[in-house]
Amino acid sequence: MGVEMRDDTPVLIGAGQFTYRGDAGNSPSPLELLKVAAERAALDAGLKGSVLADLDALAVVAFSIDAPGGLSKLPLPRLSDPPASLARAVSASPAWSVYTETGGNSPQQAVNVVCERIAQGDANLALVSGAEFLGSLMKRMKGGLGFDGWADDIDSKPRRIGDPRPGVTPQEAAHGLGYPVNTYPLFENALRARDGRSIEDHQKALGALFAPFTKVAAANPYAWFPVERSAEELVTVTDRNRMVGFPYPKYLNAIMEVDQSAAVLIASVRKARELGVPQDKWVFLHGCADASDLWHPLERQNYHSSPAMRLTGERAFDMAGITAADLSLIDLYSCFPSAVRIGAEELGLALDDPRGLTVTGGLPYFGGPGNNYALHAIAEMVTRLRARPGAYGLSTANGWFLTKQSVGIYSTKPVEGRWKRQSPAVIQAEIDALPHPEIVEKPEGRARIETYTVVHGREGVRMGIVIGRDAQDRRFVAQTPDDPAVLKDLEAREGVGRTGTVGPHPDGVRNLFTPD
Question: Which residues have a Cβ under 8 Å from the Cβ of 106 and sit 6 or more positions away?
Answer without folding.
Answer: 61, 62, 100, 130, 162, 371, 372, 374, 397, 399, 406
